[in-house]
Amino acid sequence: MMEKSEKAHTRRSFLKISATAGGAAAGTLAAPAVLAQSPMVMKMQTSWPASDIWMDFARQFTERVEAMSGGRLTVDLLPAGAVVGAFQVLDACHDGVIDAAHSVPVYWYGKHKGASLFGTGPVFGGSATTMLSWFYEGGGNEFYRELQQDILGLEVVGYLGFPMFAQPFGWFKNEVNTVNDIQGLKYRTVGLAADLMQKMGMSVAQLPGGEIVPAMERGVIDAFEFNNPSSDLRFGAQDVAKNYYLSSYHQASESFEFLFNRGFYEDLEPDLQAIVRYAVEAASTANTASAMNNYSADLRKLEEDSGVTVHRTSQDILDAQIQAWDELIAELEQDEFMKRVLDSQRQWVERVTYYELMNSPDYALAYKHYFPDKLKL
């Protein structure tokens, strides 16, 4: 009996062949040309609620695919829950239930902890931009393919895009200035960040974004992080907590994941495959510009309109995070695959971040000169 993924591949191949044959027959019978030009539709579900800014980011990808394909490939973009849950999009892509997904690798961390190394793993000093560069130039894409296709046997193809800004430590009802202040708190995060926070004395719940505020209201969690000021503002984080801590090492190098059912992707004409792949890179730039604009504006709204106090995470907590990562790394490296990935990341960061840090001027110095008394450092 064929697996679901094999059925999906066979079905798509049959439709493609039939469309070609039908187009030839239609030409013979002088049927209207529009029939031969019917667009292919890609069903793409995200892991985000319909109201989240990340749906806007996903739409920047789909708009580019449609424009560059001249309408030959259109995208039916759906929010989390439209077909499957936020954490189930990888399985849905594998099974051919959907053709594509817009998500993050950490959401399938439950299949293999190595998934978290592609964005939410140990921070050796490299930013999200540094680590997205590792994915494309340092061998990370081959490790990612190996994990999905060889180790887990998944019928998917994936690419990463949009190097996210370091994620805030999150939202707290009271100030948290030392490691003692966070002991015993019930905290929402995902992936290896959950292991990290547990080592620091927290009790962790892994929840999709749309479930965070209701869980806070019911007392299921005491504190949480999601990702950025715009998403947090849109789902009402400011209504359940007023202390917002920026800067953290728990998820400082994440990028979006663009997943495709392998059969669907390989059945595309070569130029459409290229469009799908390179639209990820194009959307990455568009997402970055949009994030800079919206995240900064929404952070100001949180402060000025909602009475939120914005803090930088203390040195005490940041130091404790690095020490907790050290413990986790020793455990993760017992897995042969993860050891190879971490070795590769360390080698990349040692060389690339050395250049980045040596080359970067002190931007804070210039900012303080032109905007005195503004920066909370």
Q: Give the number of helices.
A: 13
- How can the largest sheet be summarized? 6 strands, mixed
The SS-based structural class is alpha/beta
CATH architecture of the largest domain: 3-Layer(aba) Sandwich
The separation of the N and C termini measures: 62 Å
Instruction: Kindly state the number of beta strands.
Output: 11
Question: Mind telling me the CATH superfamily name of the largest domain?
Answer: Bacterial extracellular solute-binding protein, family 7
Name the strands of the widest sheet in spatial order: 7-6-8-5-9-11
Dominant shape: globular
What is the string of SSEs from the N terminus onward? HEHEHEHHEEEHEHEHEEHHEHHH
Compute the gyration radius: what is it? 22 Å
User: Which fold name corresponds to the CATH topology of the largest domain?
Assistant: D-Maltodextrin-Binding Protein, domain 2
Average pLDDT rating: 91
Low-confidence stretches: 1-11, 13-35
- The proportion of strand residues reads 5-15%
Which percent range fits the helix content? Answer: 40-55%
Describe the protein's architecture and organization.
Pfam families: DctP. The protein is α/β, with parallel strands linked by helices. The protein has two domains: about 5-165 and about 255-295, Bacterial extracellular solute-binding protein, family 7 (D-Maltodextrin-Binding Protein, domain 2); about 170-250 and about 305-370, Periplasmic binding protein-like II (D-Maltodextrin-Binding Protein, domain 2, 3-Layer(aba) Sandwich), CATH 3.40.190.10. Helix content is about 50%, strand content about 15%. The chain contains 13 helices and eleven strands. The chain has a six-stranded mixed β-sheet with strand order 7-6-8-5-9-11, sandwiched between helices. A five-stranded mixed β-sheet has the order 2-1-3-10-4, sandwiched between helices. Helix 2 (about 55-70) runs antiparallel to helix 10 (about 270-305), helix 4 (about 130-135) crosses helix 5 and helix 6 (about 190-200) packs across helix 11 (about 315-330).
